[in-house]
Amino acid sequence: MDDEKAIRQMVSEFLSEMGYRVIEAVDSVSAIKQAEKLDHLDLLLTDIGLPGVMNGVSLAAEFRGLYPSLNVLFITGFAAGSRLVTVDASTQVLPKPFSLNDLGHRVRELLDSGLGST
Fold first, then answer.
1. How far apart are CA 109 and CA 39, in angstroms?
2. For residue 76, how many other CB atoms are within 10 A of its CB?
3. pTM score, two decimals?
């Protein structure tokens, strides 16, 4: 999820073309409602800065309550964004601007880590 519609659509289309099942949400409230309907979720891709009641960090915490072994890829245009989250095997930060190749590599790396909820 990204707060910029064009980025959200581009990322969703790119990942779908790579063969991933993508569920797109416009804000944290709709993302949570959609997640509650899923049996599992392997990866949350979200911007750190989101409009509305929750930022991406809070959203990830909420999702990890539903899916404890969830992988998270934060994207951010905020220069200090990577200092807002702890990066580890299941959590990474991708700064904007990013290439689709970088995005694809990061997604694959997280999903291959074996820590997902599949």
1. 22
2. 21
3. 0.88
